[in-house]
Every structure is written in C-alpha cells, then in structure tokens.
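Can anyone check this?
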Amino acid sequence: AAIDDMLFIRDEDETLFQHRKDNNLSLLMCKALLSQSMLLLVISTALQFMAYRSITAAISVSTVVLSLMAFPHVPWMVWVFLHWFNTSVVFAKVFFQLPIFCENGALNLSDLSSSWCKLNCGEDVPLTAKLGLVKTY
C-alpha cells in the first residue's frame, strides 16, 4: 500500500479508510508521496552524516531517529527545531567560509593571505572541522 492511512486519520473519522472518501486522483497521489516522506528524510540524513561525519550531522540524524519513536504523529516542534537547526548550520558554514577565518577557525584580521593562517595552525583537528563548519579533513 502506497498510502499510510495512520498518517491521515482524523478524530471525526469512524473507520480507518474514511479519510479517502471524496478524494480525487491528485489528492491520493499527494497522500502517497507524503506517506513516503519519512523514508526520504531518513535516507537524506544518513547521506548527510556519511558525507560530513560531523557533530552537526550527528545531531540531525539523532533528531530524525528520535522522531521515529513518535511516528506517525511527531510533535510539530521536532520539525521546527530540525528546520531551524539545519538553517543555522548552513548559515554558520557560509559564515566560516569567509576569508577572515583561517582553516582552524581563527580570525585573520591582519591580512587576507593564507601565510598567517599556515603559521598559526596547530596539528590538531580544529573545532570548526569537528562541527562540520569547514570540511578540510
């Protein structure tokens, strides 16, 4: 079955299939697509974690896994948190790619050459790389 009836059941429905009453083909196709969105979300967060292997990607994966425990009716705040978290991560990634930051996350306000960054860069993996803000390692 392409449509997960538990996602669309309402309080006033008497039977499980009553939500399909008076639905046209386009609405049924939309319900079928929405029924598969959880699988697409799990696949996309797993691919994100495999690509970046960072703390921020692990938080996204953890949020999706926790939301599976409340499936099919996940609280709305989980999706709001996930949306704003991913938006802030994208903003931070763009911000840390500016030329005033070195690869290790240090500020370079003296000049915009990479020689100062190379002199002051330690051997450890920088925190910005661990957070997934700069993909250098």
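Reply from J.R.: I decoded it. The chain has a mean pLDDT of 75.
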